[in-house]
């Protein structure tokens, strides 16, 4: 009886045929997939990030304490949301000069240096929402001349100075909701000529004279603030829950009108000039009074000397005997 045996498949195929049957597509794609992940020293992708075609670097949710190294001009979109970047130092993104989108949501960000965004002249979208920002330094966003969308929502901003935003001529969307803003500073919105979406809900608006610029902007741009009808005063007491859109310009007639930017420029220009002119006038008057006093004192000294000369007896001549000598001879 024949023992069972494996079926015979004939002679083994030649080696070239085996090489052709290997899964070459998988082998060739594996290095490319590995190269897309950022590794220390990689040139195409920042450290600890995953890059995708089109220049997107995804560094989200990696507990990063700082902006990752390895940024370069190939990166177009940098996703740094849900990390632990608590501060942005000067030139934090200077190597990513071609960046178009920057997402820094939910980092616990507390401090942004005034030069943190230097070198990002091409940036179009910046998301700083859901952080712990309480103030922004003057000039923070000045380099971002191409910026079109800026979100500062869900922070702790109690005041936003016009100098912090600067002039952003292309900005179209600004999100300021869920902060601690009682009003918007005068001139803040004047440097945003193309703004067509302004989100403001969730702020403790104080309906006083400081709210005049915002109310005027809302009246002039009724369709650019989609939540305008829901913006309510929280103080003072008699105006609590009054909608901001209900205040006409006449409601602020008792308020002193703030100076326009042109008037401020004139004041700043003429102030030093007028100070120097006043100082020069004071010096000239002081010199004149000093000169007059000196002449008056010299005149008095001459008059006193003349009076002393008149009271002094005349000196006898050389050939005239003195009265004492005449009496002795007698």
TrEMBL record:
Keyword Protease among record annotations: no
Residue intervals passing through the bilayer: 265-292
Cell compartment(s), UniProt: Cell membrane
InterPro entries: Cys-rich_flank_reg_C, KCNMA1_auxiliary, Leu-rich_rpt, Leu-rich_rpt_typical-subtyp, LRR_dom_sf
Residues in the signal sequence: 1-28
Assembly and binders: Interacts with KCNMA1.
Protein name (record): LRRCT domain-containing protein
Organism of provenance: Rangifer tarandus platyrhynchus (Svalbard reindeer)
